[in-house]
Every structure is written in structure tokens, then in C-alpha cells.
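Q: Give me a backbone?
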Amino acid sequence: MSVRIAISALALTLLPLASSSLAQAEDSAEKAKAVTEENGKYFDADGNPTFKIENGTVDWYTFSGYRRYHSDCHVCHGQDGTGSTYAPGLVNSLKTMDYATFLSIVAEGRKNVGGGKENVMPAFGDNKNVYCYMDDLYVYLRARADGAAPRGRPPKKADKPQAAKDAEASCMGR
């Protein structure tokens, strides 16, 4: 009998947390909503890059972010941003991390020391294969964090806009 009471008490304690998490998820999805578009790139109400997924087709930048993530990031952060024993899941991190913080960490790296454990995120600010696509990485991980992009390769993608081709050539020095 006391076990049932303890479980009931625990459930009542966790119920507000569950509804709070649901509210946060809904707020995050609303905040990530694309409100403007410029040459195939989408932005939220705050002017941050975001994703656009319609009828299973992802925008080019989300697809590019998927490709870049699985080229340079998944070795440490796990498939589809879910994390590993080596590095945290970015799907969870992007639920609360803002755009500026993301850019700063990717460019400059980060070192966390605590609990007898040291985690080091190397700086990628000099790696053009990452640096030139940081917005794409952010957009992809944001879509994953909001549950808009499922695990795995997106089945359909928009064509690569000329603006993306031009930005890539400029950043890569071509």
C-alpha cells in the first residue's frame, strides 16, 4: 500500500514538470517558426536562421546542415544530434541555446570541468568546412530539437538556391 502512495505522490509531483515541458516545447516550436524568407533562407521573428519543412520537404539549408553535421559533428555528438558517451546530445542543447551562443561555441570551442570529468569542444572557427556552414548546422539542429526533422536523412529537399552557391564559393575562396 505504501508503495502505491509513494508512486502516486511522485506522479503528482512530476505532473507540473511534464506540462511545463510541453509548454516549453510548444513555445520553442512557435519561436522557431519561419516568418521571413530571403533567397531560400528562412528567419524567425528575432531574425535568427530557422528551418522550413513542408510536406516532408526540407529547405536547402536544413538539408545542408544535416550533411555538414554528419560530416563533422556526429563522431562526437552522435547520430542525428542525439549525443554519445563522449559528447552531449545537441538536440537537447538546442532546445535552450540561443543562436549567438551556438555560434560562439562552434567557433571558439568550450571546456567544461566538473565532477572529476573534463569535456572539451574544439574550436572550429578556422575550419571552413564547418565555419562556412554554421547557420546550416544551427538550422538542422534547431529542426531536430523542435521535433520538426525526424532522425535520418531528410527524404526530400528543396533545390540549392543561387544565394547558397554564391555564399559557399565566397566563404571557401573559390
Observations:
- The two ends are 72 Å apart (CA to CA).
